[in-house]
UniProtKB/TrEMBL annotation:
One of its GO terms (cellular component) is cell envelope. Residues 1-19 form the signal peptide. Residues 503-648 form the Thioredoxin domain. The keyword Transferase does not apply. InterPro entries: Redoxin, Thioredoxin-like_sf, Thioredoxin_domain, Thioredoxin_ResA/DsbE_sf. The keyword Disulfide bond applies. It comes from the Bacteria. Keywords: Cytochrome c-type biogenesis, Disulfide bond, Redox-active center, Signal. Its main location: other. It is found in: Cell envelope. Gene3D superfamilies: Glutaredoxin. This is Thioredoxin domain-containing protein.
């Protein structure tokens, strides 16, 4: 009997061990690969793990000997990993893959394993990036996390912001047309790192270790990287503060204002050599990945070219007032020599800034040339329209006075009598002035390489017309179609032109409903459509594949004209509301349309785990949410059969 109770006690003890509801505190926290990359492989929290750049829930892990068997889950997904502690390390088993992890990053003595991958034919690939992350707050939890970047073929900065939840988690989706550096901000942490289209990334941000102010330039960013480009971004995180110590920012800023043009050119090229020597020495000692080497070398070169172009207006800056100066031809020629036709230049955000510098007619000699050219063109136009002797005399007088006018910034000003005479053909005069500005731009960038021209032209048209809601003159659009532009730049322009043309004369159709979203949109849909099949399309205004799928919807819906058991619902998220409303009407999204603000989307995402746009799911007649295996509109017949199958249940 005693032996029986001893055995029973032993069994109960083992059962108790197997039923432990949480992992020991020694396992919780961040775990890094020990292959020399120092990339974040696993983050363990009380009730979730960040693994493979995504969030996974878990509960009731079981212990078998020294191993912990953990069942990870997401809506519609499940997997098991095995972890065990071995001294200061953690062994992670995921199927046949076994990895050794450390609680701490290795120091500078680590053996690095450089990645020699670099983009070749696939550099331009329009797609989206998923950036997940966790913040360890310094005090109160930051409210938002943001991604900001320059787009080589669009005006202005692109910005995407999401809420941070109470556990410090966030997930941002944003589009990219090519690999490039992005700015990232959460709380007091502001840094830059590389991202590439069609990828998943994750970061852990320790805001407690953030260094503010100028001192932050020389401190390693308190971020750990997981997923795409994690090795490269960890390398950059380490080398950037070292580079900042030799950057000589303040000296350069002072000498831009003090030195004459050719003196500053010599100084800045010498400083570029110092920066190049720094990286050559660093790379010879540390064996970088090819991407880090390409990015760093191109970034400092473009940074130097940018400084040299900014000299035009910074040199004469006095108490905040800008007084641009002329640059010698030899100076300009040297700057243009620094830029080549290599797409890898676009890795650096400096590229977009530099192209904007080239697009501006800022120097006095440029403005004088434009003013003279504009006078002659407008003069000829006026003479072709006004034939009376009095009118001709007014034109001649205007031309004489206009040539004397100062502070014209390259534009002409008609006299009051001529303003009255030109009212009837003011639109033609406007288009003439637009064409003059366009012709001047093409002349000024004629000697640049095709890639730079593509960026400047696309950015100029977006800034001057599309982003302002101004109609693009056909004479300019016709010329654009004949230019040898980069294919991505051309596709961006064609999409924006198409959007503008469609919206300009669009007569919006009936049947489009915009519905106010409640806090829990899934519960709202189940209450609104009991006993019906609800096909849900989750999309964003900037998502190209989302927009492409819309074209297949009329054909799909035609199969359900007589069947009110199938309902089509569209959920717009991570977009500007005004843009969303416009797109809903433009693409005639008949059905119910919901706009999810950041808080509503965060709650929705927690329930269904959105992994990218577009996402499709179905609420069945029984109120069950099904996401896996739901067809998209381009599947056509397969989607129709799938929805009819749900309706017949």
């Amino acid at each position: 009997m005693k032996a029986f109770f001893t055995l029973l006690l032993s069994v109960l003890s083992v059962a108790h061990l197997n039923a432990q509801s949480s992992l020991p505190s020694s396992i919780k926290g961040n775990w890094f690969l020990v292959d020399g990359s120092n990339t974040l492989e696993l983050r363990v929290s009380d009730n979730y793990m960040m693994y493979e750049s995504d969030f996974w829930s878990f509960k009731d892990p079981s212990k078998k000997g020294k191993e912990w068997h953990v069942n990870l889950s997401q809506p519609g997904k499940a997997r098991q990993i095995i972890i065990r502690e071995v001294g200061d390390f953690l062994i992670l088993e995921d199927g046949r893959i076994i990895k050794r992890l450390s609680k701490n990053k290795l120091g500078d003595e680590r053996q690095r394993m450089p990645n020699q991958h670099v983009w070749q034919d696939d550099f331009f690939k329009s797609s989206q990036v998923t950036l997940s992350g966790v913040v360890k707050p310094k005090g109160e939890m930051p409210l938002t996390a943001s991604v900001i970047y320059n787009h080589a073929f669009s005006s202005g900065q692109q910005k995407f912001t999401v809420n941070v939840d109470e556990q410090g988690r966030f997930k941002i989706f944003f589009p990219l047309d090519n690999p490039q550096d992005i700015m990232f901000r959460v709380g007091e942490v502001f840094t830059m790192f590389l991202a590439e289209p069609d990828s998943k990334m994750a970061v852990f941000v320790d805001e407690e270790k953030a260094v503010s102010g100028i001192d932050g330039w020389y401190a390693e960013s308190p971020i750990s990287f997981m997923g795409a480009l994690a090795k490269e971004n960890e390398e950059l995180r380490v080398v950037k503060p070292k580079y900042m110590k030799v950057r000589n920012y303040f000296e350069n800023d002072s000498l831009q204002k003090a030195l004459e043009p050719m003196e500053y050119l010599e100084y800045r090229l010498d400083l570029l050599k110092e920066h190049q020597n720094f990286y050559q020495n660093y790379f010879s000692e540390n064996i970088p990945s090819r991407i880090v080497k390409e990015y760093s070398e191109r970034n400092i070169n473009l940074y130097a070219a940018n400084d040299l172009m900014r000299y035009r207006w910074l040199h004469g800056a006095d108490n905040g007032a800008l007084t641009p100066i002329d640059l010698p031809e030899a100076y300009e020629a040297k700057v243009k020599e620094m830029i080549d036709d290599e797409p890898l230049n676009m890795l650096a955000g400096e590229f977009g800034d530099l192209m904007r510098e080239f697009s501006m007619a800022m120097m006095p000699k440029e403005r004088e040339a434009m003013h003279d050219y504009r006078i002659e063109q407008v003069y000829g136009f006026l003479k072709s329209k006004i034939i009376s002797e009095t009118g001709r005399a007014e034109i001649e007088e205007w031309k004489i006075e206009e040539k004397k006018r100062e502070k014209h910034f390259g534009y002409v000003k008609l006299s009051d009598p001529l303003k009255a005479r030109t009212e009837e053909f003011s639109k033609e005069l406007l288009e003439l002035n637009q064409k003059i500005t366009w012709d001047d731009l093409l002349m000024r960038i004629d000697k640049l390489d095709p890639m730079s021209k593509s960026s400047i032209i696309a950015t100029y048209i977006d800034e001057s017309y599309f982003s302002r809601g101004n109609e693009l003159p056909q004479v300019i659009w016709g010329k654009v179609k004949t230019l040898n532009l980069n294919s991505t730049a051309r596709s961006v322009l064609e999409r924006k032109y198409s959007d503008f043309v469609i919206l300009k004369d669009k007569k919006f159709v009936n049947g489009i409903e915009i519905v106010d979203s409640e806090g829990d949109v899934l519960s709202q849909l189940k209450k609104t459509y009991p006993g019906k099949v609800v096909y849900i399309d989750v999309w964003a205004t900037w998502c190209g594949p989302c927009i492409t799928e819309f074209s297949h919807l009329p054909e799909i819906k035609a199969n359900f004209k007589e069947d009110d058991n199938v309902v089509f619902v569209y959920l717009g998220a991570q977009s500007e509301k005004k843009s969303w409303e416009t797109m809903v009407k433009k693409h005639e999204l008949k059905g119910e349309n919901f706009f999810l603000d950041d808080a509503q989307y965060a709650k929705f995402d927690q329930a269904v785990n959105i992994t990218g746009f577009p996402t499709y799911m179905v609420i069945t007649k029984e109120g069950k949410l099904i996401r896996e295996g739901i067809k998209r509109p381009s599947a056509k017949k397969e989607l129709v059969e799938q929805l009819k199958g749900f309706a017949k249940r």
